[in-house]
Amino acid sequence: MRAFLDSLAVLSFLGTVLLLFAFATLLNMVRELQGKLLQAQAAAPAVPAVRSVARFGSDDGLPTFVLVVSENCPLCVERARHLAAVAGPDLAGHAVLLAAAGRCAEWVAGSEVLPVIDAALLGQVAVGATPTLVKYSADGTEEWRRVAGSDDDLDTFLAVSSSERSIA
Prior knowledge:
Elements: H1 2-43, E1 64-68, H2 74-86, E2 94-99, E3 114-117, H3 119-125, E4 132-136, E5 142-147, H4 151-167
């Protein structure tokens, strides 16, 4: 019986050594993949800090506020309808709704918000979350972008922009 237990101990020790070699091999593979990923990231062009979209420039010197929305976002519907309600002569700039789906234009129908349905342009603007309000200067250069989670947020961002304009 003692010989059997000794052979089991030796076999378990050998199994542990084999597992250590397997883990070391896997760790080496992971490190190689991480190195390749870092090389690929270093080779990729950096995203420009400031984006410029000529389509959002204006001839009258006023900024353009672009609300970026997606079709299946309930908050986007609310923000778009609120923007349609506040857009007009009191807004110190132009209001634009940017989406990929045509039905999003219905959310601002009959208002002074210009609906732009353009998936390629939406990719160029490249927001991380919707609804997002992006402010472009008169020459089409992005000044800032903010996620508009509520109507109060949207009002605050539009008011901050108006106060920036009155200070200047």
